[in-house]
Amino acid sequence: MNKKILICLSALCLLISNSSNAQWVQVTGEAIILESKATARVNALENAVFQAMTFTGGEIASLPQLKTYLQEDRQQYRFSGNEIRHISVLEQKDAGGKMYVTARIDIYPSAKSCHKVQYKKGLLLGRFSLAEPQQAAMGSIYRLGEDFSTVLQKNIQRRSQSFLVTGITQVPFSANHADAMMMLAEDNDAQYLVSGEITDISATVDDHLLQADTINRQFAVSLDIMDGKTGEMIYQNSYRDIGLWPFARTSHVDTKSARFWVSPYGQSIQRITQNMMLDIESALSCRASLPEIINIHQGVAQINVGRVHGVRNGDQLKLWHSAGFIDQKGIPRNRMVETAITLTVDRVYEKSAELRVNQPQLASSIQPGDLLTKQLNQ
To answer: Interior CA angle at 85 toward 83 and 90, to 5°?
Structure first.
């Protein structure tokens, strides 16, 4: 049976057709035209694909793999080994300084996607610092790093399928102090630590004789991700974009205001936060989520994940003893020893849950700090 559903949200319309396990979506993406119409077309097409994947429940972690192919100016895109099989560009137009691309996207969502079989993993965000504070003089945007962290947090909270932000800390991250980083992650129930540095916010001015000068401003930022269980640096990347700076050179711009974030420059920064979120999904979503035992009493164990992480009554989990150690060079080494103990979720709270030990005679060997993995054969 082939069912078609037309859903409209504001100016966005999605036409969904279900045929066996396949779905196809007709969606319109948009992007501001700045560098060129070609670049805006790519951004609008990426926006359309992201919306389609989010709406159908496809794995957004696969999107970074497609970006190289979407750079090509084509009407048809075909893929293999991906949940997206086919993209057909139906229409593209530019109006009001924006590019609009309407595409039909064929998707085969997998029931075994990583975000569907694991709990959400906690991220602790650090404040993104400014490498060259003097570059913030135009507009007095000295607090941009702090507000960038907040926007990244909101992007992850709203759109990420595999992660949630447990907090934003002012403590600087350092790979040279792994033990302190592990303690910081533990205090915030975070499996990973995410931070970086804004490396370039310089501006270039195009002088015009008969009209106002055009100011374009760079935004470059680095991304560092540390494993909260070991203190190791596990992922690094850098991003760069350029946006039109529409404010007067002598103005003081509030980087917390909607006026800043809806401007072309603010939009380019938001696009970077989305790319960061997608890269984090792609790099880490399939790593096992590791709930931790925080208390054990009379055969009932309490763990540090709950409803917001996707925990449900009846979930089955396997216990691993944590046997980490510090080697001769002073480097913490994480080690997990498999056990025959399984537990069943009995009661779920917002950020924690209680589990019943399925082998009561072995409950005495369970200790706070032991780790759990969700069993996938449920």
So the answer is: 125
